[in-house]
């Protein structure tokens, strides 16, 4: 531990008798001083002793350092001597190695011609045997030496190719015959080894056959035997993937060019197995069942491309992507060339059938919506005047819109888009997708929605009809839902196919045009429906409102809070408001309700202008307007509520005392109104002709 002087002195004083208050002893400074002096002397003696020891150790250390330095110098000299010896030895080894290499070159220069001469002598000996017509050498008679015989006959066959035919025709034919026999034996041996599963023997035979013309036949035999028993299940694509996986592990151990052999196997599978399978599956339905044909084509093409993706992980040479694409194209090219025509034809017939089946279920004979000059003229007149041209049709509450039909049409189109994406050439994809979209527009938007709108418009009764049933808002509600589904499919399934092509703007414009065209008809139908609602309310007021309601015979015996006409009109309005809310969404609700509210206000305003009001009648009119105002609150439209607030204030002019007329007219709600309007309401009072009232209002 570190030395602390204070603590050391404290311990020394504590141990000294009289050095402190320990044990009740008195403090003795002399004794403590004596102890300190003695202890200092002891420390001095100890210091001298340690100092002598340190000096002795330093001397010893210096001596040993000198001896070590001397020893290092001696080792350095020895190392230099050893390095010189090593250099001399290295030079000597290099010299000897040079001599040995030179001698080896000389020996090789002598041995190579000798080996060639020996090889040529052997070949001449074997050639003589073919000349004599009798093969005596052990290499030709011993079946175990087929490898050596193959090497010899392959060389003799090359030599025979150079000999003139007229002099050596017989020997050339014998060599060729032996060449062919050995080739067949080697292939047979390879076949047997493959069946036994002897990979090493297969590798040996394949290496020998590599220099023979029949090497490709050996590969063909290997490919054929690999496929024996490989396609036993119903899923030919899974079988092919498993087979290629297995062969990929083995082919590198057998052949020197495994990627070529594996590529040839895959080519054989595609051109034989898959092509025949695809043909069987498609030709069966090609003429008779377009739906099944398209489903099978999409499924087979998808499974083939998935198989191709699995095969991409194998080594098939440099450009395996192009290789596999060509194989797929060779199988499907005859089916893909006219795919889109089949798709459009099927989609057209299928969509027409879905619509016809729906109309048949409704026992409805579809009307033809005319085209041409007269129809266009009627359409322009109707858009500008909002007049119903032609007889009204009773639809019996049927909207002729079906979500089931729409879902079926969209589902068929969705599947068509998926097939188009998979089966179309990338350059034709936007064009094909646009054709499918055009079919959707034709059958969903024109043949179904637009027809329902036309029928709905024709079914709207005239505004002066009594007890008319208004179903057009149901058409609006269903059309709105269908538009959302249509727009979702446009964004989810069509946009990805055309987003980067010129067809995008064409599709967007077509969609915009069809929606605008339908919005015009929807607006027209809603406007005419609102007119019919107002017409119904007019009939209620005409039937229920009596002149005596606002000019009762007995002013003191009025027991009702508001008139019967008011009750029925408010009940009718509340139902229509609820129906509008259920039929619209978003800002359309407020827009239609505001228009309905404004027309409602105008109707009540004009209706009140038709009567004369006594004092009690005026009070009843105020009560009616208060009820109308309460009904207007259900609209939740500020403008409508403001109009009825103003009307309520105007009705106060019917009951206010003549002396207070000017004060009421200058109130907050009436101050900004035209004086003629105020005057028109004051004129409705039965006491208007009194000089006093006329004087106060002038």
TrEMBL record:
A Gene Ontology biological process term: exocytosis
Q: Name one GO cellular component term.
A: exocyst
- Using the record's annotation, list all stretches that form the Exocyst complex component Sec10 N-terminal domain: 29-137
Q: Which organism is it from?
A: Opisthocomus hoazin
Please provide the record's keywords in A-Z order: Coiled coil, Exocytosis, Transport
Q: What is this protein called?
A: Exocyst complex component 5
Name residues in a coiled coil: 40-78
* Alphabetized InterPro entries for the sequence: Sec10-like, Sec10_HB, Sec10_N
The protein's matches in Pfam families, at most eight in alphabetical order, are given as: Sec10_HB (PF07393), Sec10_N (PF20667)
Q: Which positions fall inside the Exocyst complex component Sec10-like alpha-helical bundle domain?
A: 148-697
Name the family the entry cites: Belongs to the SEC10 family.
């Amino acid at each position: 531990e570190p030395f602390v002087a204070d603590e050391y002195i404290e311990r020394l004083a504590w141990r000294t008798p009289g050095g402190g208050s320990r044990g009740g002893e008195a403090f003795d400074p002399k004794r403590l001083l004596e102890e300190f002096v003695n202890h200092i002397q002891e420390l001095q003696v100890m210091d001298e002793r340690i100092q002598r020891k340190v000096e002795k150790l330093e001397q010893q250390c210096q001596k040993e350092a000198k001896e070590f330095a001397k020893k290092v110098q001696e080792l350095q000299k020895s190392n230099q001597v050893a390095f010189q010896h090593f250099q001399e030895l290295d030079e000597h080894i290099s010299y000897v190695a040079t001599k040995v290499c030179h001698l080896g070159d000389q020996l090789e220069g002598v041995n190579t011609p000798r080996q060639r001469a020996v090889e040529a002598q052997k070949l001449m000996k074997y050639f003589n045997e073919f000349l004599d017509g009798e093969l005596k050498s052990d290499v030709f008679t011993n079946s175990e030496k087929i490898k050596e015989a193959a090497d010899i006959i392959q060389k003799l066959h090359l030599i025979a190719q150079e000999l003139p035919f007229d002099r050596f025709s017989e020997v050339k034919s014998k060599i060729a015959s032996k060449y062919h026999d050995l080739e067949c034996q080697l292939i047979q041996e390879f076949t047997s080894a493959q069946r036994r599963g002897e990979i090493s023997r297969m590798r040996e035979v394949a290496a020998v056959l590599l220099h023979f013309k029949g090497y490709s036949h050996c590969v063909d035999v290997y490919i054929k035997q690999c496929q024996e028993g490989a396609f036993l299940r119903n899923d030919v694509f899974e079988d092919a993937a498993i087979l290629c996986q297995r062969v990929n592990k083995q082919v590198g151990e057998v052949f020197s060019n495994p990627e070529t052999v594996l590529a040839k196997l895959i080519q054989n599978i595609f051109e034989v197995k898959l092509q025949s399978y695809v043909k069987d599956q498609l030709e069966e339905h090609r003429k008779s069942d377009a739906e099944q044909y398209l489903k099978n084509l999409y499924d087979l093409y998808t499974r083939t491309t998935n198989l191709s993706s699995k095969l991409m992980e194998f080594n098939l040479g440099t450009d395996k992507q192009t290789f596999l694409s060509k194989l797929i194209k060779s199988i499907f090219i005859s089916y893909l060339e006219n795919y889109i025509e089949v798709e459009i034809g099927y989609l057209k017939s299928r969509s027409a059938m879905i619509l016809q089946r729906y109309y048949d279920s409704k026992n409805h004979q579809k009307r033809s919506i005319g085209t041409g000059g007269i129809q266009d003229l009627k359409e322009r007149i109707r858009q500008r005047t909002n007049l119903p041209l032609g007889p009204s049709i009773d639809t019996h509450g049927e909207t002729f819109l079906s979500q089931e039909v729409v879902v079926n049409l969209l589902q068929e189109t969705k599947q068509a888009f998926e097939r188009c994406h998979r089966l179309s050439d990338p350059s034709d994809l936007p064009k094909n997708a646009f054709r499918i979209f055009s079919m959707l527009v034709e059958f969903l938007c024109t043949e179904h929605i637009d027809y329902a709108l036309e029928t709905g418009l024709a079914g709207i009764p005239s505004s002066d009809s009594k007890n008319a049933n208004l179903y057009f808002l149901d058409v609006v509600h269903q059309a709105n839902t269908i538009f959302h589904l249509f727009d979702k499919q446009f964004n989810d399934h069509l946009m990805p196919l055309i987003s980067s092509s010129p067809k995008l703007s064409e599709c967007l414009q077509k969609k915009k045009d069809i929606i605008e065209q339908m919005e015009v008809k929807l607006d027209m139908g809603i406007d005419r429906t609102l007119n019919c609602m107002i017409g119904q309310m007019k009939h209620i007021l005409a039937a229920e409102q009596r002149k005596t309601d606002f000019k009762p015979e007995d002013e003191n015996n009025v027991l009702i809070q508001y008139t019967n006409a008011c009750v029925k009109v408010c009940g009718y309005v509340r139902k229509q408001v609820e129906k509008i809310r259920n039929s619209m969404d978003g800002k359309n609700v407020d827009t239609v309700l505001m228009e309905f509210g404004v027309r409602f206000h105008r109707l009540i305003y004009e209706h009140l202008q038709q009567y004369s009001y006594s004092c009690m009648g005026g009070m009843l009119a105020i009560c009616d307007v208060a009820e109308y105002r309460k009904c207007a609150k259900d609209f939740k439209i500020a403008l409508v509520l403001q109009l009825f607030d103003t009307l309520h204030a105007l009705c106060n002019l019917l009951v206010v005392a003549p002396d207070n007329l000017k004060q009421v007219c200058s109130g907050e709600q009436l101050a900004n109104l035209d004086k003629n309007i105020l005057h028109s309401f004051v004129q409705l009072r039965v006491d208007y002709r009194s000089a006093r009232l006329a004087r106060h209002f002038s």
